[in-house]
Amino acid sequence: MAGLGVMEVSDATFDQEVLKSEQPVLVDFWAVWCGPCKAIAPIVDDVATKFAGQLKVVKVNVDQNSSSPSRYNIRGIPALLFFKGGKVADQIEGWKPQDVIEEKIKRLLA
Predict the structure, then answer these.
(1) Per the count of CB atoms within 10 A, which of 57, 59, 61, 62 is most buried?
(2) Backbone φ and ψ of 7, nearest 5°
(3) What is the DSSP letter of 17?
(4) What is the rounded distance in angstroms from the CA atom of residue 46 to the CA atom of residue 26?
(5) What CATH number was assigned to the domain covering residues 6-109?
(6) Rounded Cα distance, 8 and 104, in Å
(7) Within 13 Å, how many C-alpha atoms sit on residue 36's CB side?
(8) Active site residue ranges
(9) 37-73 pLDDT, tens per residue?
């Protein structure tokens, strides 16, 4: 479930939407059955709204897409990966408060 300003991405569209993006990208790896993923979803949606135009925010359902998570060694979810210029610049695993996530975004955009 993606909120406003958040795009669902699949293994097939990952390279185009994330690696080739002009803007920095926040990728949220999640699954329907994951409680902490549900808890972090409103934060991810809020961040997408707050940084609209500066940051692209996408979600990858790990149950439906296995190659992207394995390519980036995603072992636990939720996992937030921050991409800049097609490379992982930072990452967060597990639930974190919004200020921690925003701090990483600000560093990414700096």
Answers:
(1) 57
(2) -110, 140
(3) I
(4) 12
(5) 3.40.30.10
(6) 22
(7) 13
(8) 34, 37
(9) 999 999 999 999 999 999 999 999 999 999 999 999 9
